[in-house]
Amino acid sequence: MVVFLDTSAIFAFLDADDEHHAAAAETWRRLDHSAATLVTHNYVLVEAAVLIQRRLGGEALRDFLEAVVPLLAVVWIGEDLHQAAAAALLMSGRRRVSLVDCVSFEVMRRAGICEFFAFDPHFDEMGFAPFER
C-alpha cells in the first residue's frame, strides 16, 4: 500500500501543541504497523522544513531531517510536473490552494496514489481518500 504524506501531517506529528497532534501520532502508528510506503515530494520537504524551523526550532528540524525524511519515498519534481501543477493552480483560481498542493495532487494522480495522510481538506475535495486502516 502507498500513502501520500503532506506537510500538514508532518507538522501535526512533530508539534505536540498542534490541534491534530494526537490524531497524527495515532495515524503514524497505524501506518507503521501497516508497512505502508509513505510518498511525498521535495516541495513538501522544503515547505515542512521551513515551517518546522520557524515554529519549532533547530532541534525539531534536525529530528525531521534525520529521523523522518529517511523513512519516506521522495519524488523529485522536474520541470514537466512543476509546469503541470502551476497550470492547474492558475486554472483553479483558488486562493487557499498552494502550488505545493497542486504538485501533490499531480504526483498522486501520476503515481496512482489514492490515499493520503494530511489534515488539509483540499485532498478530500480533489477526490482522494484519507488513510484509515
Give the tags.
133 residues, alpha/beta, Rossmann fold, five-stranded parallel sheet, 59% helix
Structural features, described:
The chain has a five-stranded parallel beta sheet, sandwiched between helices. The protein starts with a strand and ends with a strand. The protein contains seven helices and five strands, in the order E-H-H-E-H-H-E-H-H-E-H-E. With 133 residues, it is of the alpha/beta class. The model has no long low-confidence stretch (mean pLDDT 96). The protein has helices at 7-14, 21-34, 42-56, 58-68, 79-92, 99-111, 122-125, and strands at 2-5, 37-41, 73-75, 115-117, 129-130. The chain has a domain at 2-76 and 113-124: 5'-nuclease (Rossmann fold, 3-Layer(aba) Sandwich).
Outline the secondary-structure elements.
Elements lengths: L1 E4 L1 H8 L6 H14 L2 E5 H15 L1 H11 L4 E3 L3 H14 L6 H13 L3 E3 L4 H4 L3 E2 L3
Parallel strand pairs: 1-2, 1-4, 2-3, 4-5
Helix pairs in contact: 1-2, 1-3, 3-4, 5-6
Mean pLDDT, all residues: 96
Number of β-strand runs: 5
Which fold name is given in CATH as the topology of the domain at 2-76 and 113-124?
Answer: Rossmann fold
Helix content: 55-70%
What coarse outline follows from CA principal-axis ratios?
globular
> CA-to-CA gap between the ends?
11 Å
